[in-house]
Write a structure and sequence with these properties.
Layout (H helix, E strand, L loop, with lengths): L4 H9 L2 H27 L7 H15 L1 H10 L8 H8 L10 H12 L3 H4 L2 E2 L5 E2 L3 E7 L5 E7 L3 H19 L11 H15 L2 H14 L6 E2 L12 E5 L4 E2 L2 H7 L4 H19 L1 E3 L7 E3 L5 E3 L5 E3 L2 H16 L2 H11 L11 H14 L7 H14 L6 H20 L6 H14 L3 H11 E2 L2 E2 L1 H12 L6 H13 L4 H13 L6 H13 L2 H13 L3 H5 L2 H16 L1
Parallel strand pairs: 5-10
Antiparallel strand pairs: 1-3, 2-3, 3-4, 4-6, 7-9, 8-11, 9-10, 12-13
Helix pairs in contact: 1-8, 2-3, 2-8, 3-4, 3-5, 8-9, 9-17, 12-17, 13-14, 13-19, 14-15, 15-16, 18-19, 18-20, 20-23, 21-24
Length: 563
């Protein structure tokens, strides 16, 4: 069933005792934990009791049920926000929760699939191999020998989640205006977005469809594995999927038990996240370590596709535009991007906001890649959210959650890893390749400013792209030459020719460095081969219609007419 906050509110309007009792349970459980922390502080026993309090927090969240376990899972991916001892306990919330009785699980399987378990599966583990917030997983085998995971939903999830969402929604409506937040709308919008995704997550048919769509997107990327869905053995509350053999992406399991290269795994995860946001527009919104596995063959596997979201084409293009405008330090256009993305309303006067953006982001741009992280952005941007009429679009709450979770996984695997050391080369490579007309236009925006060709920016892009081992300048150069010979490349070519003939910086050390950079790893013979390859890809008609050729031919005809 879909999430309907109005229907839930109407239901509990006539059952206020349920709301009051649940509110009392939540406040008393969290209150005892907070009181314990304060008592430790007053009696100077904080260090002595830190492990005890960490265990207490995990038990409190577990006792409060699925909604609060989800909150704990989100916190378990933030080692930069949560102390180590608390982090170790919260990680247990990912798939090491108390299971519900096997008798109930087996009865649910038979009721949902309409056949005895002995007929459905050749074998099934006597106990669950993992228990998470919304369900538990058994290992099994089909009659044809395929190894499978059988995911069974916890009983009575809908009423439990509905009650918690009703309590939280009332709390943010009552107390939200008193919080030091400036989101531009009621906090209930974000609660409703979370509720919508949570209700989608407990529909296993929806999860199966998401998994297949995700697999189709990554079909051409062998580093990412998505388990196969067995639809004959799947229903709304039972999901049967391919068993993934691997280790969870946590520091201990990947680097000790799994013996994996953590940087290689993080690189795969970061690039796959960027592809989800900027290429496919369909992204995994809950990539915590319990949902990511390192496989023996070096691939990274995603599981649990219940919490997903998508971006339309306009949002994807605007996100790339905002990256380009940030690189160019064009804060007026960046402010306009914030309007398009919904962080500012269309009627907002952006003139006073532009200097504020410049003061904040100029500091971020000046930070070296090794010192940069998403926490830097959120810390700096939080001040702007409070002082200016910014708001947080509900959809972007999930995007931000996905990004910070991915960064949290990276920090768990390697505390010294910097996510933008992978993100920068990916964006630079896509800009240089100019795979689509949109990216070609954005590359022009980067390389030209006030009609002048920006040699330094081209040098920076190549420098950044070269840090990605998969980047090869030759296909990029060939594509660029093909674009120059096309009808769309006339303006670009004209600007380059003007830069070569008029720009006084042509003979400076800057351009010499650029040439040294290109020829260092890419021999002139290969570059010439790319040029001939680009020329060979065009027919005589295409070359004859190339703007410079047309101009020369027209001039020759005019001279002949004059003669």
């Amino acid at each position: 069933m879909p999430y309907d906050p109005q229907a839930i509110a109407r239901y509990y309007r006539w059952r206020p005792w349920l709301l009051l009792w649940r509110t009392f349970q939540i406040l008393s459980s969290l209150g005892r934990f907070v009181w314990g922390l304060k008592w430790d502080q007053w009696t100077r026993q904080t260090e002595r009791n830190r492990f005890r309090r960490a265990i207490q927090l995990r038990r409190v969240l577990t006792g409060l049920g699925p909604t609060f376990i989800k909150i704990g899972q989100a916190l378990s991916t933030r080692p930069d926000l949560v102390r180590k001892e608390f982090l170790e306990e919260l990680i247990l919330l990912q798939d090491q929760l108390p299971p519900f009785p096997n008798k109930k699980a087996l009865a649910l399987i038979e009721r949902e699939l309409g056949r005895p378990v002995s007929e459905l599966y050749r074998s099934m583990s006597p106990q669950p191999v993992a228990a998470a917030s919304l369900g538990q997983v058994y290992r099994g085998e089909l009659w044809d020998g395929d190894a499978i995971a059988i995911k069974v939903q916890r009983p009575k999830l809908v009423p439990k989640i509905s009650l918690d969402l009703a309590v939280i929604r009332k709390a943010v409506v009552w107390f939200g205006p008193f919080l030091p937040l400036n989101l531009g709308h009621n906090l209930s919008v974000i609660v409703d977005e979370f509720g919508t995704k949570l209700f989608e997550e407990i529909d296993y048919l929806n999860e199966g469809r998401n998994a297949e769509r995700f697999a189709d997107n990554f079909a051409a990327y062998p580093d990412v594995k998505v388990p196969k869905i067995y639809w004959e053995y799947t229903s709304q509350r039972v999901l049967t999927l391919e068993w993934i053999e691997g280790t969870k992406l946590t520091a201990s399991q990947c680097m000790v038990n799994g013996k994996r290269d953590p940087d290689a795994l993080v690189r795969t995860g970061v690039v796959s996240s960027l592809r989800q946001l900027l290429e496919f527009g369909f992204f995994h919104a809950d990539p915590h370590p319990g949902n990511l596995f390192a496989m023996p063959d070096g691939r990274m596997a995603y599981i649990d596709f219940g919490m997903m979201d998508q971006l339309d084409q306009v949002a994807k293009e605007t996100l790339v535009d905002s990256v380009v405008h940030l690189i160019n330090q064009d804060y007026r256009l960046l402010a306009q991007d914030f309007v398009k993305l919904g962080f500012l309303t269309p009627e907002t006067d952006i003139r006073p906001i532009v200097p504020a953006l410049e003061s904040v982001f100029s500091e971020i741009i000046d930070v070296s890649v090794k010192d940069f992280n998403f926490q830097t952005i959120t810390d700096q941007f939080s001040g702007l959210m409070y002082e200016y009429p910014f708001r947080l679009p509900a959809k972007f709450a999930l995007i931000i959650r996905s990004l910070v979770t991915q960064e949290g996984v990276a920090l768990c695997l390697n505390p010294d890893f910097k996510i933008v050391e992978v993100a920068y080369p990916y964006v630079a490579r896509r800009l240089l390749a100019g795979e689509t007309p949109e990216f070609q236009r954005r590359l022009l925006e980067v390389l030209f400013k006030d009609g002048k060709f920006q040699w330094q920016r081209l040098e920076n892009l190549i420098e950044i792209a070269r840090t990605d081992d998969s980047f090869d300048l030759i296909p990029t150069a060939q594509f660029g030459l093909q674009y120059l010979f096309s009808g769309d490349g006339g303006f670009f070519l004209k600007q380059i020719v003007l830069a070569l003939t008029e720009d006084e910086r042509l003979h400076t050390e800057e351009v010499s460095r650029l040439w040294d950079l290109v020829k260092e790893d890419f021999q002139p013979q290969r570059l010439l081969g790319a040029a001939f390859g680009a020329l060979a890809s065009f027919s005589e008609e295409a070359v004859a219609n190339w703007p410079p050729v047309v101009a020369i031919t027209t001039a020759q005809k005019e001279l002949q007419n004059v003669a």
